[in-house]
């Protein structure tokens, strides 16, 4: 087929093959090196990227391409694990954030390879780089490629690599999902179809999470506070002093309060913390539940938080870049009067995440009373930030008497 097309270069020729009958159907040709090329490299020993570059150098020869002989037949098995900044519990939504070298521990050993852009190698211009996961690009963080003589050996090596892998600085990745798949009996028995993950997502995540949990001794042996994931010690009865003060208001006086944790029912801080507290803010004990958002950390001083208990507050359901605003939310400095009407179901804001657009619609007919702080096209807004306050339309009956 390539000869007929006079095709020159690397490419992926895709077929659909029936494993039982060996019948096949041609699908397509991708004239490029695909993301899965690492698997081919591992089982053939051919550096495909090097070959592609040399192919378009001056006067390439089969000798210069190390291809004087026919490419070797595949030898062994290889699995590519695509580590992404996505949250499987939130429909695989993007997890934005910033990472430092101290946040990352890569697996190593025979038959394990890592391809990643999270690198502070010899070409880095920064002694302490910060890698930012942005809504502008793909969520791929790294490709962990493993190789084994058999499928079972490759799968075991993949599971071991995922146990060694550590990623901090982000609220969520798909590591537990990958670990759950690699250890699942259906994977090991080759009983997976295209809808398998949808049917078994909860089980796979639970299995992966239990596999990824480190023993307590391993947690205590962590010396780097930046990369440690050990729980924060909080004892019932501990007294805290709380001072609240407006950031940019020199005229306001600080408000001082006290609070104590009467009891703790769950301590997985910073992921989750719940219990009962007593505080000078309320005469009665308060039951509380604190859970860390799986969305990205955004500098909240540029925005304001929506009040989940106030139905007039329209908030951002996820973190992403604002690419479009309803005209009712586009204001000038002199435009301070309310009265800009929106209809129920009308798109008031469009957020882009990995080039996928998500819309926020008006929950009811109403008037935009106020636009949230920092809301404008081109900025990255965080989950839970205030988009606008929306006043309901009050119908009135005018008497004709």
List the main descriptive attributes of the protein structure presented here.
401 residues; alpha+beta; four-stranded antiparallel β-sheet; 8 helices; 23 strands; globular
Q: Percent of residues in beta strands?
A: 25-35%
Q: What's the β-strand tally?
A: 23
Largest sheet: 4 strands, antiparallel
Number of separate helices: 8
Span of the ends, CA to CA: 86 Å
Major β-sheet strand ordering: 12-13-14-15
Rg (CA only): 27 Å
Show unreliable segments. Answer: 216-231
Structural class: alpha+beta
What characteristic shape results from the CA principal axes? Answer: globular
Helix content: 10-25%
The average pLDDT value, as a whole number, equals 83
Describe the 3D structure.
- The chain is α+β, with helices and mostly antiparallel strands.
- It has helices at residues 2-5, 37-44, 48-55, 151-164, 175-183, 185-188, 196-212, 216-220, and strands at residues 12-17, 24-30, 77-84, 86-87, 93-94, 97-99, 104-105, 112-116, 131-133, 140-148, 166-167, 239-244, 255-268, 272-279, 282-291, 313-315, 320-325, 340-342, 347-353, 356-361, 366-371, 380-381, 386-392.
- The chain has a four-stranded antiparallel sheet, with no helix packed on it. A four-stranded antiparallel sheet has the order 16-23-21-18, with no helix packed on it.
- A hairpin with a 5-residue loop joins strand 4 and strand 5 (93-94).
- The model is unreliable at 216-231 (pLDDT under 50).
């Amino acid at each position: 087929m390539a000869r007929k097309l006079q095709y020159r270069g690397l490419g992926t020729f895709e077929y659909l093959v029936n494993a039982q009958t060996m019948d096949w159907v041609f699908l397509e040709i991708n004239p490029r090196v695909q993301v899965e090329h690492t698997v081919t490299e591992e089982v053939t020993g051919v550096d495909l990227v090097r070959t592609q570059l040399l192919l378009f150098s001056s006067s390439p020869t089969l000798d210069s391409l190390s291809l004087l002989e026919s490419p070797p037949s595949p030898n062994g098995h290889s699995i590519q694990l695509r580590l992404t900044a996505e949250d499987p519990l939130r429909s695989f939504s993007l997890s934005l954030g910033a990472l430092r070298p101290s946040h990352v521990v890569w697996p190593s050993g025979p038959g394990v390879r890592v391809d990643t852009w999270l690198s502070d190698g010899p070409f880095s211009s920064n002694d302490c780089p910060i890698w930012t996961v942005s809504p502008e690009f793909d969520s791929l963080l790294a490709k962990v490629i493993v190789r084994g003589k058999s499928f079972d050996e490759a799968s075991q090596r993949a599971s071991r690599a995922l146990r060694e892998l550590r990623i901090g600085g982000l609220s969520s990745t798909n590591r537990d999902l990958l670990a759950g798949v690699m250890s699942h009996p259906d994977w090991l028995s080759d009983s997976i179809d295209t809808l398998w993950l949808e049917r078994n997502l909860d089980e796979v995540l639970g299995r992966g999470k239990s596999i990824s949990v480190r023993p307590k001794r391993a947690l205590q042996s962590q010396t780097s506070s930046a990369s440690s994931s050990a729980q924060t010690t909080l004892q019932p009865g501990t007294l805290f002093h709380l001072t609240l003060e407006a950031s940019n208001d020199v005229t306001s006086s600080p408000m001082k309060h006290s609070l104590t944790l009467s009891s703790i029912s769950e301590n997985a801080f910073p992921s989750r913390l719940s219990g009962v507290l007593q505080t000078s803010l309320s005469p009665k004990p308060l039951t509380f539940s604190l859970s860390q958002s799986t969305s990205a950390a955004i500098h909240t001083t540029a925005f304001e938080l929506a009040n989940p208990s106030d139905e007039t507050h329209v908030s951002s359901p996820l973190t992403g870049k604002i690419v479009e605003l309803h005209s009712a939310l586009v204001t000038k400095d002199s435009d301070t009067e309310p009265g800009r009407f929106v209809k129920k179901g009308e798109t008031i804001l469009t957020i882009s995440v990995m080039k996928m657009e998500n819309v926020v619609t008006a929950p009811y007919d109403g008037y935009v009373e106020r636009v949230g702080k920092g809301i404008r096209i081109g900025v990255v807004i965080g989950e839970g930030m205030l988009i606008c306050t929306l006043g309901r339309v009050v119908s009135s009956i005018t008497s004709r008497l």
